[in-house]
């Protein structure tokens, strides 16, 4: 939720269905990334697109995660106040507006979508993995707690 407030400008309730679905998709994708088919997809995407396997589910999940992200960006575009950015998305949208005439600008919707997702995934992934490992260490060595 801290990452969400920085990137999306809002916190989600822990019972929020969309948020829980997003977390489930992220966890499932983490597991699917270890499959050999997914590894092969990284090297041979054109061939692997036609073959069944867990990489197909990973791609479907990724599309759903992208859709979640795009819905938030579209909502931000509708409610944007250029004088008062609420979060990363608003700041990026403001910069996109400033760079509108520049044909070489990297401030595009595609870049916004990718960067927003990268920030969210990096923040949530590393934080949850660090907490999991910390708890496992505390379980194995309970004398550290005292």
Automatic annotation (TrEMBL):
<dbReference type="GO" id="GO:0008392">
    <property type="term" value="F:arachidonate epoxygenase activity"/>
</dbReference>
<keyword id="KW-0479">Metal-binding</keyword>
<keyword id="KW-0256">Endoplasmic reticulum</keyword>
<keyword id="KW-0408">Iron</keyword>
<dbReference type="InterPro" id="IPR001128">
    <property type="entry name" value="Cyt_P450"/>
</dbReference>
<dbReference type="InterPro" id="IPR036396">
    <property type="entry name" value="Cyt_P450_sf"/>
</dbReference>
<keyword id="KW-0472">Membrane</keyword>
<dbReference type="InterPro" id="IPR002401">
    <property type="entry name" value="Cyt_P450_E_grp-I"/>
</dbReference>
<dbReference type="GO" id="GO:0016712">
    <property type="term" value="F:oxidoreductase activity, acting on paired donors, with incorporation or reduction of molecular oxygen, reduced flavin or flavoprotein as one donor, and incorporation of one atom of oxygen"/>
</dbReference>
<dbReference type="GO" id="GO:0020037">
    <property type="term" value="F:heme binding"/>
</dbReference>
<dbReference type="GO" id="GO:0005506">
    <property type="term" value="F:iron ion binding"/>
</dbReference>
<keyword id="KW-0503">Monooxygenase</keyword>
<keyword id="KW-0560">Oxidoreductase</keyword>
<dbReference type="Pfam" id="PF00067">
    <property type="entry name" value="p450"/>
</dbReference>
<comment type="similarity">
    <text>Belongs to the cytochrome P450 family.</text>
</comment>
<dbReference type="GO" id="GO:0019373">
    <property type="term" value="P:epoxygenase P450 pathway"/>
</dbReference>
<keyword id="KW-0492">Microsome</keyword>
<dbReference type="InterPro" id="IPR050182">
    <property type="entry name" value="Cytochrome_P450_fam2"/>
</dbReference>
<dbReference type="GO" id="GO:0005789">
    <property type="term" value="C:endoplasmic reticulum membrane"/>
</dbReference>
<dbReference type="GO" id="GO:0006805">
    <property type="term" value="P:xenobiotic metabolic process"/>
</dbReference>
<protein>
    <recommendedName>
        <fullName>unspecific monooxygenase</fullName>
        <ecNumber>1.14.14.1</ecNumber>
    </recommendedName>
</protein>
């Amino acid at each position: 939720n801290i990452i969400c407030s920085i990137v999306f400008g809002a916190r989600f309730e822990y019972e929020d269905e969309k948020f829980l679905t997003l977390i489930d998709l992220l966890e499932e994708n983490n597991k699917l990334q270890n499959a050999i088919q997914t590894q092969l997809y990284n090297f041979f995407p054109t061939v692997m697109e036609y073959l069944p396997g867990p990489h197909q589910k990973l791609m479907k999940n990724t599309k759903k995660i992208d859709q979640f992200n795009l819905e938030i960006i579209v909502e931000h575009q509708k409610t944007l106040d250029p004088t008062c950015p609420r979060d990363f998305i608003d700041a990026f949208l403001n910069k996109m507006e400033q760079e509108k005439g520049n044909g070489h600008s990297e401030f595009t919707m595609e870049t916004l979508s990718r960067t927003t997702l990268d920030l969210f995934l990096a923040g949530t992934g590393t934080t949850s993995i660090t907490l999991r490992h910390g708890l496992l260490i505390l379980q194995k060595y309970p004398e550290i707690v005292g």
